[in-house]
Design goal:
single chain, three-stranded mixed beta sheet, globular, Endonuclease, Chain A, binds zinc ion, mainly alpha
Length: 149
C-alpha cells in the first residue's frame, strides 16, 4: 500500500495516539484524589523512568502504559504500515526499557505498579479500588499484578 500520508498527516495521527494516552491517567488522578489519596508527583524527572504517579515518601511508582507504545499483548495494536521496522524497533526499545526501569526501581527499594491504559478505560473503578486497598495495606503492593498477560 503506498504511503499517501503527508508529514503533517502523520504528525496528526501520532498526536492523536499520544493524547489518547493521557486521558486515562487524568481519570485515575481524579479517582485517587477523590478517595483522599495524595502526595504524588506526576512524571518527576528525578525518579527513574519518570513514573506517571510517583509517591516519593512511600517509594511507590505507578506507570500507566499506553497499549500501543508498550506493546500490550491484550490489545495487540497494529503498527503503522509505513516505516514498520522503525515502529517495531521503537516499541521493542520501550518494552525493554520498561523491564529495566521496573527492575532497577525494585532494586532501589521502590514498589512498582504497572497498569495498562485499556484497564483504566474499561475498569477504572475496579483498578482504583485495588489501588486504594493497596495504599491502606502497603505490604500487599509487592504482590499486585495488575497487568495480566
Ligand atoms: Zn491494552
Amino acid at each position: 500500500m503506498p504511503d499517501n500520508l503527508t508529514p503533517e498527516d502523520r504528525k496528526r495521527t501520532m498526536r492523536a495516539v499520544k493524547s489518547s494516552k493521557t486521558k486515562p491517567e487524568r481519570r485515575l488522578r481524579a479517582y485517587l484524589a477523590g478517595r483522599g489519596i495524595s502526595g504524588w508527583k506526576m512524571h518527576p524527572v528525578d525518579t527513574l523512568g519518570s513514573p506517571d504517579f510517583s509517591f516519593p515518601e512511600l517509594r511507590i511508582a505507578i506507570f500507566v502504559d499506553g497499549c500501543f507504545w508498550h506493546a500490550c499483548p491484550h490489545c495487540n495494536r497494529p503498527l503503522p504500515e509505513t516505516n514498520i521496522d522503525y515502529w517495531r524497533k521503537k516499541i521493542q526499545r520501550n518494552v525493554e526499557r520498561d523491564r529495566l526501569v521496573t527492575h532497577e526501581l525494585r532494586n532501589g527499594g521502590w514498589k512498582v505498579i504497572r497498569i495498562w491504559e485499556h484497564q483504566l478505560r474499561s475498569d477504572l473503578q475496579e483498578i482504583g479500588e485495588i489501588l486504594i486497598r493497596a495504599f491502606h495495606n502497603l505490604d500487599t503492593i509487592d504482590e499486585l499484578q495488575l497487568q495480566e498477560d
